[in-house]
Amino acid sequence: MTDDTNPKPQKRYIPLNRWPHAWPPVGGLRHLAFHAKTNGFEKVIKRVGRRVLIDEDAFFAWVEEQNEKR
């Protein structure tokens, strides 16, 4: 028997070039993704072949984390 009363919310992965938010612009996201190993952005992106996907929830958590460092 499955428990369908509390379904697990599905993560939202957005292709980098289709980022729907005004900030940061796609060019800024590309910069962050290019330097992901040095800026901690690795936990936000998922690479599938040549495609780069942004985990939307992880992105906003990363922004809050950066805000706390200051």
Provide structural commentary.
The protein contains three helices and three strands; from the N terminus they run βααββα. The protein has 70 residues and is α+β, with helices and mostly antiparallel strands. It has one domain. A three-stranded antiparallel beta sheet has the order 1-3-2. The longest helix is centred in the C-terminal third of the chain and has 14 residues. It starts with 12 loop residues before the first strand and ends with a helix.
Radius of gyration over C-alpha positions, nearest whole angstrom: 14 Å
Structural class: alpha+beta
Identify the overall geometry.
Answer: globular
Strand content: 15-25%
Helix content: 25-40%
Quickly count the domains: 1
Say how many strands there are: 3
Biggest sheet statistics: 3 strands, antiparallel
Amino- and carboxy-terminal Cα gap: 48 Å
> Poorly predicted ranges (pLDDT <50, ≥5 residues)?
none
Q: Give the helix tally.
A: 3
Strand order, largest beta sheet: 1-3-2
> Could you state the order of secondary-structure elements as H and E?
EHHEEH
Report mean pLDDT, rounded to a whole number: 91
